[in-house]
Amino acid sequence: IATFNEYLNFHNVYFMFDVFIDAHNYSQLFIKPIKWKIIILLLYKTLKKLTDPKLLNSCVYVLKMLVHMSKAKRVLEIGMFTGYGALSMAEALPENGQIVACELEPYLKEFAQPIFDKSPHGKKITVKTGPAMDTLKELAATGEQFDMVFIDADKHNYINYYKFLLDHNLLRIDGVICVDNTLFKGRVYLKDSADDFGKALRDFNQVVTNDFRVEQVCKFFSQI
Ligand SMILES: C[S@@+](CC[C@H](N)C(=O)[O-])C[C@H]1O[C@@H](n2cnc3c(N)ncnc32)[C@H](O)[C@@H]1O
């Protein structure tokens, strides 16, 4: 038998879920079809060969829009995977724009590069393979700076990437850092969560909140 509070929570959850589904369905009506056929090819090849389709989600539209809105010219992506996010962001960059995409696995560069080469935007992307921290050190040593950074790799290193970017001026003043998974399926705020990734992201969120150098916003984007 449910207590009154449980009863209320039960109905709230259903109410929230309905609102969420309705909002999601409604918002899908307003997504424009992807313009470039090459990115469709990339999506198709990724789904066919490599992955769980959940990894490829509507967040790339948000990234592309952020690049456009911030008028970024130089973007750093930490964790490239098959290049779907990189190519989407490249579409929003000006002709002389540049993305440096860090990816641990050389086979993912081999997968993505031929598709980038077919795209009119592919020339804007440079893939650096190996641990991202090594690439960040290399970029800092040569005085590189970026207008926007997208962190989307190994969760345990998010704090290290974030600190390194700011401490070594890899992000220009007034630049933007976007970080994927900061709510991580609720595991960051569920009290009994013993999940390592959840804990790493919880610590990361706290570090950013305590850092007087930045302003932050945490936004939920649906993946269904
Ligand atoms: C979630 S996927 C990235 C998705 C991509 N940002 C997109 O939007 O399409 C994470 C990627 O980070 C890479 N990765 C994990 N650890 C890394 C590291 N230490 N250095 C560089 N890349 C890493 C993984 O190989 C994987 O391809």
From TrEMBL:
Family annotation (Pfam families): Methyltransf_3 (PF01596)
Keyword presence, Cell membrane: no
Gene3D superfamilies with a match to the protein in the record: Vaccinia Virus protein VP39
Domain of life (superkingdom): Eukaryota
UniProt KW Cell division keyword: no
Keywords: Methyltransferase, S-adenosyl-L-methionine, Transferase
Signal sequence annotation: none
Family annotation (PROSITE patterns): SAM_OMT_I
Transmembrane segments: none
Coiled coil: none
GO process terms (BP): methylation
Molecular-function GO terms, alphabetical: O-methyltransferase activity; S-adenosylmethionine-dependent methyltransferase activity
Family to which the UniProt record says this protein belongs: Belongs to the class I-like SAM-binding methyltransferase superfamily. Cation-dependent O-methyltransferase family.
PANTHER family cross-referenced by the UniProt entry: CAFFEOYL-COA O-METHYLTRANSFERASE 3-RELATED (PTHR10509:SF14), O-METHYLTRANSFERASE-RELATED (PTHR10509)
Protein's recorded name: Catechol-O-methyltransferase domain containing 1
